[in-house]
From TrEMBL, chain A:
This is Mitochondrial distribution and morphology protein 35. It comes from Remersonia thermophila. Keywords: Disulfide bond. Belongs to the TRIAP1/MDM35 family. The lineage of its organism: Eukaryota, Fungi, Dikarya, Ascomycota, Pezizomycotina.
From TrEMBL, chain B:
Coiled coil: none annotated. This is PRELI/MSF1 domain-containing protein. Residues 1-220 form the PRELI/MSF1 domain. PANTHER family: MSF1/PX19 RELATED. InterPro entries: PRELI/MSF1_dom, Slowmo/Ups. It comes from the Eukaryota. It comes from Remersonia thermophila.
Length: 83, 240
């Protein structure tokens, strides 16, 4: 599995990725359990928690905010067009 | 200034498999030899909208910078952030609608946007007007928009005083910006990047095709097994 940008999160990321890909291919793609991928929610929470610090340290949280700000007008235009 | 490229392609694999390959495409360099420039991939959100049944996913990829070295050299450290690692964070958002049969994706760079912003949007759909082909092929439209705001940023940063100096330099025929012209730089960056992206699109398709072939032969569990074994042993998966 690919690396996490925070090496300390690699292990939980791999478990989450595997869970997600199994859920996606075995349930979502077959139209089962489309309400949510609850079975991976616990792993995702753990993974997210691990990742938060890394996103902050590297200033990615700020870059994300900037990107969202930058996109507001584009998004509005796109949403109007999309199905 | 904006440059746009649109291309169309048809994968000879069913739509669900293509969407799975999209999520798997940076999974491992052993699986996709064209993903060696991807240093990391992280999911920051993933949820199914209960009313529409659409899966919304946001991921961040760290890729080795694709800005050509010639461009990097041109730029002051204040714009590139003085980064020596030259890696770009890419924000990828995707929406899959399995009921309606489409997936829309968007990837954009998060840093260096002052130099060059590249936004790639893809729409994967069941084959249009060819219902008979729906079982084994998927259309994809890729639109890439390049935008360089270099000149605007430089103006913002240096302020009017510099603008006046520039104007004076222009009238006397000297000065770096007067010779190159901010618009000229923007245009060159967009053109360089778009030429490079044309190459890159071919590679990204080739990478998707390799993953699709593996999925066809071994299925998702086989792919996960291969990836795991390969990363544990640090060895190359033999090519089929």
């Amino acid at each position: 599995m690919s690396q996490s940008l925070a090496p300390e999160c690699n292990e939980v990321k791999e478990r989450y990725d595997t869970c997600f890909l199994k859920w996606y291919s075995e349930k979502y793609l077959r139209g089962l359990g489309t309400t949510d991928n609850n079975e991976c929610a616990g792993l995702f929470k753990e993974y997210s928690k691990c990742l938060q610090g890394a996103l902050k340290d590297r200033g990615i949280d700020k870059l994300l905010d900037e990107a969202r700000e930058d996109n507001k007008e584009n998004d509005a235009a796109l949403m109007g067009k999309k199905k | 200034m904006v440059l746009t490229h649109t291309t169309n392609h048809t994968y000879s694999h069913p739509f669900p498999t293509v969407t799975l390959a999209f999520f798997l495409r940076y999974c491992s360099p052993q699986l996709n030899p064209f993903a060696s420039h991807v240093l990391s991939t992280d999911t920051i959100s993933s949820h199914v909208d209960p009313t529409t049944g659409r899966l919304h996913t946001t991921r961040i990829h760290l890729k080795k910078s694709r800005l050509p070295p010639a461009v990097m050299k041109l730029l002051p450290a204040t714009l590139t952030g003085g980064n020596s690692d030259k890696a770009s964070y890419i924000l990828e958002t995707s929406v899959v609608d399995m009921r309606e049969g489409w997936m829309s994706t968007e990837s954009r760079n998060l840093n260096y946007v002052g130099v060059l912003s590249v936004v790639e949007r893809q729409l994967y759909t069941l084959p249009k007007n060819r219902p008979a082909a729906a079982a084994d092929s998927t259309d994809v439209e890729t639109k890439v928009v390049f935008r360089s705001r270099l000149g605007e940023r430089i103006r913002d940063r240096l302020g009017e005083a510099r603008d006046r100096a520039e104007a004076a330099a222009e009238s006397s025929g000297g000065g770096f910006f007067a010779r190159l012209g901010a618009r000229g730089i923007q245009r060159s960056i967009e053109t360089l990047a778009s030429t490079k992206t044309q190459d890159q699109l071919g590679k990204s398709r080739e990478g998707m095709r390799i993953i699709l072939e593996r999925l066809r032969h071994t299925g998702i569990m086989g792919v996960l097994e291969l990836t795991k074994m390969a990363s544990q042993r640090g060895m190359q998966v033999p090519a089929r």
